[in-house]
Amino acid sequence: MKKEQNHIDRRDFLKRTALASVAFCVAPTLEKVYATRQTVTAKETGPSNGASVNQQRTLGSGEAAFTVSAMGFGCMGLNYHRSEHPDEQAAIRLVHEAIDRGVTLFDTAESYGPFTNERLVGKALRGYAGRVSVTSKFGHKFVNGVQVKTEEDSSPANIRKVCENSLRSLGVEALGIFYQHRSDLNTPIEAVAETVGELIKEGKVLHFGLCEVNADTIRRAHAVCPVTAIQSEYHLMHRTVEESVLPLCRELGIGFVPYSPINRGFLGGLINEYTRFSPNDNRQTLPRFQPEAIRKNLRIVEALNAFGRTRGYTPAQIALAWLMRKAPFIVPIPGTTKLSHLEENLRATDITLTDEEMRELETAVSAIPVTGSRYDALQESKVQK
Ligand SMILES: NC(=O)c1ccc[n+]([C@@H]2O[C@H](COP(=O)([O-])OP(=O)(O)OC[C@H]3O[C@@H](n4cnc5c(N)ncnc54)[C@H](OP(=O)(O)O)[C@@H]3O)[C@@H](O)[C@H]2O)c1
User: Fold this and answer.
1) Which domains does the chain have, with CATH numbers?
2) What is the mean pLDDT of the chain?
3) Distance (Å, whole) CA 30 – CA 35
4) pTM of this prediction?
């Protein structure tokens, strides 16, 4: 509560300092944070005082309904899998900037790091309970802290263990959505749904979600515990969910959270065949991010550039606006380490593409074949068809 008060004071303070550029005086413990934030605000957001997300969307329905900002924030890349990471204080400041701009949905997972991403997000969200929600995921198998990549573990005991760890790392009383990360051949989905249902009754989890599952699994899970959201990969270069998952979400009143909505940065237009990813970045292992595939797929970015040129939209904004126009129950969770990209992405929530524009865009993009699969063989074997 005290931090919440500090946060509100800080916003007022920033508005005033951004306008007047005067010397300022703050409590010593917050001086560093204020000083840096003032610089960032003045330099990067300009007189408009920054983009914000002003709309909300509801994931799920009935008792499973969960209303969140129309765009969320994928936290994974703040310290995992996305090459250069900001230092901890800068990452925390970026999360605070997202909150200042109306984002209420933050996504993480036990396996990001592993464990360290949840801890970072926990630090960043401290003091914001009741104002924002954090979603996390269970289901990967870890032995002595190391992931066993050939197996999954959604046993009830592991779900409960991960839940307790996530609550502790994140410093929250309940997880907004607790997703199964990948399906586990050894645990029927009904047992998974029942276990998460119990955690909901115990108040440790607010809502149930599933990642990369097929329509049959969604139906079976939903019959046991109402599903709030499916989180699967969905963007202009990967549209498989349109075949049966999205129609089923519409039918059952389930929300959809597209992950990697900018195709891991590719649709932002800043990656080319000379881009080299750090060893910590999973893109270096993905077929679609090999130089030859990138070179061929850049035609898709060119199509987005051509579409956006006369309209004043960037390729990332087009990718996000397209997703949000596909259905009102879709809430993308782009990730970024940069305030400028956060601003750019949030401004996509103000873009409404017309039916004709959607057709024009889809026709242009689907005329270009996508080169390279999204995952390697092992990862692909983990996603349900
Ligand atoms: N459920 C699952 O299995 C699963 C799998 C993967 C991811 N996820 C979730 O989805 C979230 C997002 O996924 P993601 O990070 O893989 O992909 P993404 O959001 O599509 O792309 C993130 C990348 O795009 C770049 N980017 C962001 N905005 C940009 C812009 N406006 N212009 C140019 N580049 C931009 C970022 O770099 P900068 O830092 O330079 O902006 C970053 O490298 C994750 O944080 C995670 O929460 C879930």
Assistant:
1) 1-49 (no CATH), 50-381 (3.20.20.100)
2) 89
3) 8
4) 0.89
